[in-house]
Structure formats: structure tokens, C-alpha cells
Design the sequence.
């Protein structure tokens, strides 16, 4: 017999003053309540109630057990309600893994608005371009680049990952504007170094694609390093539009080939929000995914 059920039956008998009143309150037969209380007493090895045909009262052991088990069940019910509220309310700690590039340039600047809307959420943000094991690391949401391989995770595309080739006005003043993609062979190009990426930049327009081999005096696996170098006039760089849009709008960077679609890899370059698969995604996770979708809608 279920131990929780027998304990609740015992409490109801004590609080109602009789087996019949307890049975009516619980919605079962008097015989069922009697069996539950008898089962509890047998399991404990003591009598909890003095029974007569007209009344019942607690034994000494019954008084102690009643006081303690009532407190235990009240605590259990309170914890149960509190835990259940996480599936109803947007609250709690949200652990995030964000890529350095879009994390610094796009997502983190928008977090105050998210937190203002959801004041009961606390964020733990890690900037990393490494695909960690989200489940073992306790990560709720990650922002990754490229297609998802692990089927136990769920991915939602945020942005197609459009790239732009850009540089600072100072670099153009010193070296001139390249008139076509082939001219990049004579320019200092800052190259992103990572798996599935190479030193060939692809330019597509009107159904035709041109591949240009580029090189320069700086390579890095960090988009943040490349952008900082470009902003300081080192050379031309290919970066996500989401990362450089604000700098282009302010005039700190110049879009060199606005009429081309550009890429430095044949792999998927889209940006995804990734989170562990679950039958019940928490409200805090859903809220943050929705926030990301709205944020990247224009990219």
C-alpha cells in the first residue's frame, strides 16, 4: 500500500475526528480508510489511535507521529508546489553558452531588455565557440554555428548566417578599394581559422561563383580578434553580418562587396539556438528561445 496515501489517511482521520468523516473528505469508503491506517500501524509496529465505538484518540506514539508527519507532508506539499511553479512561471537560473562573436555584439547588449521583461530569471553566461556537452554541463541554451549532429538536442535556426567582407575606412584610404574579388589577392586579408574553413573566399552573383585564395599577416579562430584587427585598419575580413552591422552603420567599417553573397566554407554557416531535448521544455528556456528568434529576425 502506498506509504504517502496511508500517512494522508491517518492525518485526515485525526483532523476529521472519525473514520467516516475522513472517508467522506477523501472520497473513499470507510473500510478503505481503516485498511490504510491499519497498514500504517503495522508498518510502524505501534498503535497510533485508541478506538472505541463512540470516539478515537491519539496514543502517545500517535501524538508524536502526528506532529512530525504533519510537518513532513506540509513541507513536501510546499516543495512540490514550488517545483511545479517552474513549469508554469518564467523564473530560475538560466545557463547560456554563446558564441563570442554574436554573443558580444548582438545578444549580450540585448539582455537587459530580456531581464526587464523577466525579472525572476538569473543568467549565467559563458562565451565560447566550443560545442560542449550541454546536458553534462547543465546548459539550458547554447548558440552554435552550423548544423546539428547530436539528435538528442533540439536546434532552432536563428539566422542564415550571411557574411560580409569589410574593412576600416583607414585601410581603404591607405590601400585603395578592391574593384572586384580577384583584386583581393593583392590585399591583406585577415583569415578565420577553424575546422571546415580554408583560405578561399567564395563570391556569388548572378548564378556564378568565384573562389579567391586570400592571405594576410593574421589568422585566428576568434571572430572577435578578427573584428578588432579590422576595426584598427589591419586588413579586410569576412564576418557575420550580425556581428558587423552596427559598425558598418556607424561608419567604423565599410562593406566592400555589397552586391555579392560571400562565404569562406561549403559547410552550413547558419546560426542556431540549441537546447537539450525534453518532453517538457521549461518556460524560462522557451522564453529565451523566443527572445533570440525575435532578436535575429532582422538578420
Sequence:
Amino acid at each position: 500500500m502506498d506509504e504517502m496515501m496511508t500517512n494522508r489517511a491517518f492525518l485526515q482521520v485525526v483532523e476529521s475526528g472519525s473514520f467516516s468523516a475522513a472517508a467522506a473528505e477523501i472520497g473513499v469508503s470507510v473500510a478503505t480508510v481503516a485498511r490504510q491506517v491499519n497498514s500504517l500501524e503495522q508498518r510502524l509496529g505501534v498503535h497510533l489511535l485508541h478506538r472505541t465505538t463512540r470516539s478515537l484518540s491519539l496514543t502517545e506514539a500517535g501524538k508524536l507521529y502526528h506532529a512530525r508527519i504533519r510537518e513532513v507532508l506540509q513541507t513536501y506539499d510546499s516543495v512540490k508546489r514550488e517545483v511545479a511553479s517552474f513549469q508554469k512561471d518564467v523564473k530560475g537560473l538560466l545557463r547560456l553558452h554563446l558564441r563570442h562573436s554574436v554573443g558580444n555584439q548582438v545578444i549580450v547588449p540585448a539582455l537587459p531588455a530580456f531581464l526587464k521583461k523577466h525579472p525572476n530569471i538569473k543568467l549565467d553566461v559563458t562565451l565560447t565557440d566550443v560545442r560542449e556537452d550541454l546536458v553534462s554541463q547543465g546548459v539550458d541554451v547554447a548558440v552554435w554555428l552550423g548544423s546539428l549532429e547530436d539528435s538528442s538536442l533540439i536546434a532552432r535556426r536563428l539566422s542564415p548566417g550571411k557574411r560580409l567582407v569589410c574593412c576600416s575606412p583607414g585601410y581603404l584610404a591607405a590601400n585603395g578599394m578592391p574593384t572586384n574579388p580577384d583584386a583581393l589577392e593583392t590585399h591583406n586579408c585577415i583569415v578565420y581559422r577553424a575546422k571546415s574553413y580554408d583560405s578561399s573566399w567564395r563570391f556569388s552573383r548572378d548564378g556564378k561563383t568565384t573562389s579567391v585564395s586570400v592571405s594576410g599577416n593574421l589568422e585566428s579562430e576568434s571572430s572577435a580578434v578578427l573584428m578588432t584587427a579590422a576595426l584598427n585598419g589591419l586588413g579586410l575580413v569576412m564576418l557575420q553580418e550580425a556581428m558587423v552591422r552596427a559598425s558598418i552603420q556607424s561608419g567604423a567599417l565599410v562593406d566592400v562587396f555589397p552586391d555579392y553573397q560571400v562565404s569562406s566554407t561549403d559547410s552550413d554557416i547558419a546560426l542556431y539556438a540549441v537546447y537539450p531535448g525534453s518532453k517538457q521544455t521549461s518556460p524560462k528556456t522557451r522564453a529565451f528561445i523566443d527572445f533570440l528568434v525575435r532578436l535575429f529576425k532582422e538578420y
Observations:
- Residues 163-263 form a domain with the D-Maltodextrin-Binding Protein; domain 2 fold (CATH 3.40.190.290).
- The two ends are 59 Å apart (CA to CA).
